[in-house]
Specification:
Helices cover 39% and strands 15% of the residues. It is α/β, with parallel strands linked by helices. It folds into two domains: 195 residues, Rossmann fold; 161 residues, Phosphoglycerate kinase, N-terminal domain (Rossmann fold, 3-Layer(aba) Sandwich). Helix 9 crosses helix 10, helix 9 runs parallel beside helix 16 and helix 13 packs parallel to helix 14.
């Protein structure tokens, strides 16, 4: 990646490496058991690349006040099981115990520090700039015993905190293999994708979907933007279809303060780019615990719209089949309810069978792809959620900015500090 020091560019053997990851995972609250270890498995290539270093892993799990906010002991145990190597865990982050444990590491050993969000500097404090995150105790403490910082925390790269952005000017920052893979994979969607280019945008976060659509259209490469899920419902509403008060209220409440801006986005897309848009032609509602198919002529409805219909899928199928590049983010339905999983599963099947490049935009879509064993059929399946949407929306990414800043500071001085290009 241009302007960034990559792990493939340097040899870090024998050095003490701070390795920031995002392995935030679904957890069973009562037992603390990890329900999905996909993000842990995604960092294995980088860990193998760093097998001759003194490796110190920093990560987070959820946030204070949430039921799944826990220490990292379960993560360290699961990682140990995955890689077949000992992973030591310390219930400290940057205190005396952590520092001493790091200093005692030998080449090839791995130490997993505790949940960094247990440190008030890391979570609970707002930082206006990356530079503000550098002047913190957690950075001052860890930088004294480390040679280099490696990051694979793509899923948090839209955020700013000391362990994400605070090392940029203190020690060399290096892009890990997962981070590099994510950026290279998602860049296809933004820079010269093969055409015809189709984007399928759904899920409950209509504001995210519309920001991505706006950026893709601005780039000028997109041929079709297909809206499904709650995003599709909102676009139907903006196009003049009365989707019923229960569905309007859900959108209003879900978007909160973002409703007005998102509505303006939707209205502008309808008025200025209707030739690029694919909207549902039929739907499925939940009535008396049953799936009931309806056409647009049956609107408005007093029942929640939970899926797209068969005709919509039939109309979408040839577009997917003809596409040379497909970007899909966001379910087409309330797929957690089996009777309403149909639309989402059918889109997954179509994308799995597609001949073109397929890019999955993280979050629930990525989890579904993994659960159904379809990741091997996709060109790129992102580990990000909000970060993927921020990247695709063209927003600033603090972690990537930190990598670029560090490269500008240290790229000419690597040999001086013992890092061999």
């Amino acid at each position: 990646m241009e302007g960034v020091l990559s792990l493939s560019d340097v040899n870090l053997d024998g050095l003490t490496v701070l390795y920031r990851v995002d392995v935030n995972s679904p957890i069973e609250p009562s037992s603390g058991e990890l329900l999905d270890d996909g993000r842990l498995r995604a960092i294995v290539p980088t860990i193998e690349k760093l097998s001759k270093t003194k490796l110190v892993i920093l990560g987070h799990q959820s946030r204070p006040g949430k039921s799944d906010f826990t220490d990292m002991s379960s993560h360290s145990k699961r990682l140990q099981s995955i890689i077949g190597r000992e992973v030591k865990f310390v219930s400290d982050i940057c205190g005396e115990f952590a520092i001493q444990s790091i200093e005692n590491l030998l080449d090839g050993e791995i130490l997993f520090l505790d949940n960094v969000r247990m440190n008030e500097e890391e979570y609970g404090k707002k930082y206006k700039s990356n530079e503000d995150t550098e002047n913190t105790n957690i950075i001052d403490s860890l930088v004294e015993i480390a040679d280099v910082y490696v990051t694979d925390a793509f899923a948090a790269s839209h955020r700013r905190s000391p362990t994400l952005t605070g090392f940029a000017s203190r020690i060399p920052n290096v892009c890990g293999l997962l981070m590099e893979k994510e950026i290279d994979g998602l860049r296809i969607a933004l820079h010269n994708p093969p055409q015809p280019y189709l984007s399928i945008l759904g899920g409950a976060k209509a504001d995210d979907s519309l920001r991505v659509a706006k950026n893709l259209i601005k780039k000028g490469f997109i041929d079709t933007v297909a809206f499904v899920g709650v995003a599709g419902n909102m676009m139907l509403w903006a196009a003049g279809h009365d989707i019923g008060e229960v569905n309007k209220n859900f959108i209003r409440e879900n978007l909160g303060d973002e409703f007005e801006n998102t509505w303006n986005y939707a209205s502008n897309l309808i008025s200025e780019h209707s030739d690029l848009l694919f909207l549902p032609s039929d739907l499925a509602i939940e009535e008396e615990d049953k799936r009931i198919p309806i056409s647009l002529d049956d609107l408005p409805t007093e029942f929640p719209i939970y899926d797209i219909g068969i005709q919509t899928l039939m109309d979408l199928k040839p577009i997917i089949k003809q596409a040379s590049c497909i970007l899909w983010n966001g379910p087409a339905s309330y797929f957690e309810l089996p009777k309403f999983a149909f639309g989402t599963i059918e889109i997954l099947n179509m994308c799995s069978e597609a001949d073109g490049i397929t890019i999955i935009g993280g979050g629930h879509t990525s989890a579904l792809v993994n659960q159904r064993g379809a990741s091997k059929f996709m060109t790129h399946n992102s580990t990000g959620g909000g970060s993927t949407m921020s990247f695709l929306s063209g927003e600033r990414m603090p972690v990537i900015e930190a990598l670029k800043k560090s490269y500008s500071i240290f790229s000419q001085r690597l040999a001086e500090i013992g890092i061999n290009p």
